[in-house]
Design goal:
alpha/beta; single chain; 8-stranded parallel sheet; 184 residues; globular
């Protein structure tokens, strides 16, 4: 397995979408240390042609991104009914769902109920993954449920600009098999 692969942005590249090596895709099945904030990782996941669930830590992030992409993205929070998710999934391609860590299992199950092979056809983008480690102590059930659900996805990436040394993640059974990568 490849470890610590470094993808270096060309001089003048401001966004991840400016890196030809990525091919307008977020690398899958890795921990993506993007090194800098505001480089467009979430935007790339929202704008490319890959069906994607984006998991974020806060409702504010869901509301912010969903409001910027009203036509193409559904933001799923606690009050959004499953029927709204189903209606969205049946009328949009590719699907782009942004939700909190807590709602990933519900969103996943709702898509399965729509006969979408979510684990094989949808990419799971877990943003701000470094927060999982701190939140685990007081949001154990929600974080464990996210990690259990994520482990079923064929394509999942944990993304952050906050570096976590690979050895500090080595005991996490979900992340242990994932190579670290970074954008510098």
């Amino acid at each position: 397995m490849e470890k610590d692969r470094i993808i270096t942005a060309l001089a003048g590249a401001k966004w991840l979408s400016d890196i030809p090596e990525l091919g307008n895709r977020i690398p899958a099945n890795c921990i993506l240390n993007k090194s800098v904030t505001g480089c467009g990782a979430t935007e790339l996941a929202l704008r490319n042609d890959v069906p994607t669930i984006i998991a974020v830590p806060t409702q504010n992030l869901v509301n912010n991104k969903a409001s910027q992409h009203v036509e193409d993205v559904i933001g799923v929070l606690e009050g959004v009914p499953n029927e709204a998710i189903k209606t969205y999934a049946q009328s949009h391609s590719p699907i782009k769902i942004i939700t909190t860590y807590d709602s990933v299992p519900r969103v996943t199950q709702t898509l399965l109920d729509c006969d979408i092979d979510v684990y094989n056809e949808v990419f799971l983008f877990v943003d701000e993954y470094h927060l999982l480690f701190n939140a685990y102590s007081y949001r154990h059930e929600a974080i464990q449920s996210l990690l259990d659900t994520a482990s079923r996805f064929k394509r999942v990436t944990y993304v952050s600009a906050t570096p976590i040394v690979s050895t500090s993640c080595g005991n996490c059974k979900t992340c242990r098999c994932l190579p670290f990568g970074s954008k510098t």
